[in-house]
Amino acid sequence: MRQVPLGQTGVQVSALCFGCMHIGTRIPEDTSYQLLDQYFEAGGRFLDTANAYAFWVEGCHGGESEALLGRWMSTRQNRSEIFLATKVGARPTVPGADLERAEGLSRQAIEQAVHTSLRRLGTDYIDLCYAHIDFRWNPLEETLEAFDDLVKAGKIRYLGCSNFTTWRIEQARQMSKIHGWTSFCCAQQRYTYLRPRHGINHQYWPPASEELLDYCREHSDFSLLAYSPLLEGAYTGKKPLPEPYQGPDTDARLRTLQAVAQEVGTTTNQLVLAWLLQSSPIVLPLIGASNPDQLRENLGSLQIHLDLEQMSRLTLAAGR
What we know:
This is Aldo/keto reductase. By secondary structure, this protein is α/β, with parallel strands linked by helices. It contains 10 helices and 10 strands.
């Protein structure tokens, strides 16, 4: 699988990251193993999870995805080959609670969450650890110093943030620079070909904005990863588009997407991933799958080449 740089860490990671949100919960263990093996056999080495996955599934409390990954890596004896990413901060402290009762990003919460994740994953280090949500009730300075201490202790190699606005990303990176702490090297945000309507309150989950895209273009030491790039199957027409994405802008972009997909001879899902991979800034999509056929389709996006005219048509559809 093609490798791309992660910021300026000096590390190359798989261009398609495998998102493990529902492995071991909605996806049964045997199918989860099959999908992980399939991704690994395709050359994929970048796995993404979180200590919160998947607390919202009935009977689950979070940590199930990490635990399954730990068992899989132990069985396959391949931990040293994997670039392993997890997130902390969003796991509820009370079973059945929502994000209002999340663990947050205090020093104590971060240290406890990271050490518990290490045990579940069966490893003594995490390659990339994200602050999962920008919980403003915790002082940013406390959060950043706690993460830096874990880097210095060898528990974490690199740091990222997820669901942060651009100004908060810059504030955090400048604060880390001033104190000599490890800086965020990447952000993981909701990002796809379609654009949500302006004025939507996304609460904890702000999508990648034009401002963030510009920020990543100007800062070569900072990478952008896209979660939910396929809107959980909405591009296939089998599921309705999420309400924030409905409107004239979406209609125009979907027409262009479908026209280019027909020209190229590919599926709309594959075209969305190919567009992300070939856009500016370069985006690392997280791909999810519940069966081998879906994963095979997603992996096929790596074989698609879009020329400049096709990229321009897709990007400029419906205007800016």
